[in-house]
Structure formats: C-alpha cells, structure tokens
Amino acid sequence: MTNPEQAETPVDPTDPLRVLIVDNDRPHADAVAESLTRVGYDCTVTDSGSEAQNLIDENIYDLIFTDLVMPEVDGMEILRHTKEALPEAEVIVVTGHASVGTAVAAMEQGAFTYLEKGAGLTHLRTITDRVAESLKLRRDNMELNRRLDKKFGFEGVIGNSAEMNAVIEKLKRIAPTDASVLIQGATGTGKELVAQAIHQNSPRKNRPFVALNCAALSENILESELFGHIQGAFTDASADRVGKFEYADRGTLFLDEVGDMPMPTQIKLLRVLESGEITRVGSNETIKVNVRILSATNRDLQESIADGSFRSDLYHRLKVVTVILPDLRQRTHDIPLLIEEFMGQFADRHHKTINGMATAARRRLMAYDWPGNVRQLRNVVESMVVVDDDGTLGLSDLPEEFTEEADTSIEGGSPSLGSMVGRPLVDVEKQFIADTLTLTGGNREEAAKFLGIGQRTLYRKIKEYQL
Length: 467
What we know:
Layout: E1 18-22, H1 26-38, E2 42-46, H2 49-58, E3 63-67, H3 75-85, E4 90-95, H4 100-108, E5 113-116, H5 121-152, H6 162-174, E6 181-184, H7 191-200, E7 209-213, H8 219-227, H9 244-247, E8 252-256, H10 263-275, E9 277-279, E10 286-288, E11 292-297, H11 301-306, H12 312-318, E12 321-324, H13 335-349, E13 356-357, H14 359-367, H15 373-387, E14 392-393, H16 425-439, H17 444-451, H18 455-465
Parallel strand pairs: 1-2, 1-3, 3-4, 4-5, 6-11, 6-12, 7-8, 8-11, 13-14
Antiparallel strand pairs: 9-10
C-alpha cells in the first residue's frame, strides 16, 4: 500500500551520496566535482539548466549544487523543479555576493543552504558532509520506522491488490477500538496474522496476545484451556491452572476455528462475554477478566446456525465487526509481493544467499490455483530456498507438483502481444509496464532496467496509468 512516488528501492546507507552539479561555468563545475569525487561522492556535472531538469527527471540524486544565475533556466527554477521531482533531495545554491538576498529567498523555498562563489573547496566539502550526515540520519529514522511498521504495523498483512487494500483500511479503522472481530476466510489465508495486526495496533498492544485453536482440542480440554481449572477438578488435575482468559487479561484472546467449538463450550463462552467473568473448571468462584475477543473460522457460520451446530446469539456477540479475507487466487497481483517477502524471510532463516527468482518460475507460481492459499505459497517458496544451489530460484527448484504445470502467462492476466495489435499505444505501454512490474515482484529499479527507462520516468508512468 505504497504510493508509487514513494516506493523507491530503499537506499543503502553505505552508498555514496549522489550529487548533481549545475553551473554554466563548466571549469568551476568540474573542479567542484573533482574535489567531491576525491572524497567518495558520486558526481554528475552539467552546464545547462534545461539539461539539469532532464537529469533530475530521469535519475535520483541526493544533493544538487546549482548556480543561482544562469541563462534560460536559473537556479530558482532548478530548486522548484527538484522539490517537485525529488522532494527528498537537498539543494545548495551557489551565488555571487550581489545575489545573497536572492539566495536567502531560495532557502525560504526549501534550499538547504547557499554558498558564495569563491568559497574554498574545504568549506564546500564540509557543507556536503553536513548534507550527507543529515540524509543518513533521515534514512536511519525511515528504516527504523519501516522495521517497526513491518513488525508491528499493517505491512505484515502483505498485499497491494484492491481486495487487500480494502481489508487493511478496515483493519486500521477497527484496530483502535475494543470491538469483537470475526475474521473469515479459507484455510491458509492469514487469519491469525490479521488478528495479530489488530492487536498490535490497538491500545492493548503492550498486553498479551493469546491464541487458541478450538478445533484441536476435546470439549473438556478446551474448557480447561479457556477458563483454567482447580486442583482435583478432574483426573490428572494435580494443581490449579490459569486459563487463556486469565492469562490474556487486559489483552487480546484469539479463538481460531471458533466454528468447531462444541455447543456446551459455546454456552459458557457466551456467558463470559456477557458478564466479563470466568469460572475455573471445578470451582464456584468467579474471576473478573477484561479481554478483547478476536475469532476466526473457515466455516460459513450462517449455515452452522441453520443446522444447529452454532449458537446465533454467540455469533452476533463475536461478529460486532467482520473481516473477510479473499483467497489467494482472488488477488493474484499480490503474489509477487508475497514471493519477495518469503524469499527474504527464508534466505535469512536458512542462511542462504538468494538473488531473486527466475521469470519462468515466477510465471509458474502466478499461474497456479493455490488451493492452500498464502500458507501454501509460503511453504513452496521455503522449499525452493532450501533446495536452491545457485542463488536464483528457478524451475528446477520447484516442488514436484509444479513440474507438470504448463509455463503459461499470468492467470487472468495480460493479453498476448498479438491481441494488442490495433490497440492504442498507451494501452500497450501500460500493459507492458504492469507485466514487467509483476515479473520483478514490484521492484521498480529492476523493472526500469528491463524496460530501458529511467526510474523517475517509470514512477511517472506508474502514477499516470494508476498502476
């Protein structure tokens, strides 16, 4: 859920500062570039303001030195153009003594600072170092925020499709509340991940998140797990035991596969939700609890209510808000994002170097129906990472069930080249850009290289075509 203009490939903090020097006095510009290159900066030089605008449109720079007074396109126009095209870049204007007032006005419009012509190279390097330090601090903060968002925010619910955008927007609205939420979706769609995201973005985030699978336990054990028991309550109850409700007090309790809960337990759960009190198995003493309930099921609870296996009153207590997760085959455009995420996860976990996935393998995964949804895709990518021996996940790394799949185009996806004949050129360009972004897993830098265009041009096309 990123803005195309902001979704650039993250900058490595160890990369050299990328500097554009704009000065119609070419010898002076070359001298500045030589001085900065000598201490490790990556410099580009132009003596034309209009060419500088083109370079800014086609490339990414961290710092731009621009002469204030130039024919045709002056430094103020370069400043305005930079702030529009590269809002994260810093601009330093270089001016003669008589134009200091204008230079101050440039700072008011966003310039980092100004330098008078004739300032020594040592001073110029010092100013550049200040910019580098400022950018590094900004990037470190952005990276920290990105990691926090990834760990605790909604970025863990991966997807950029319309279906997942709608889910995430709903999660953002309901997370800060205390409402009970019923999460519905097929097996493997990520229901517990959604529950964790709701908890981590709620006022209860510093309290426990406790998960319990209701389908995996018998009636007696499930009640003990939920409510706890006292010593002697049943055979093998050798000591008092705290249940999930008590443990989750002031936090969140996630009841997975709640549709499989036995009817007697449903009645007791409803009583707890209405009273805010639990009673341990074998005890008569009530205990107050303050717990937010999130539940999930892959069943149609309306059908369960109709056949008498699920209580209607409990259903309505659990579903104050409902979140429905789509099957993976309903959001195939999210598959490249998921592939990239899982490749990174499992490369780290298994201490492997993975440089990417071959296009043919991507197409094979995109064309698959994914009956096991995101969980199945996750397992397939992990398998590929484990068996890979050359750093690129290819067809030979796919599990056996994929070896017979035809290497078709993306399911529900792009028209063939022949079918595009006679269509407007803009339609062809839009389709090719969309397909290239899909095949590169949304990596815009890699997509720009495939397409043979600059990154800024690609960003503008993404925005223009609303990709």
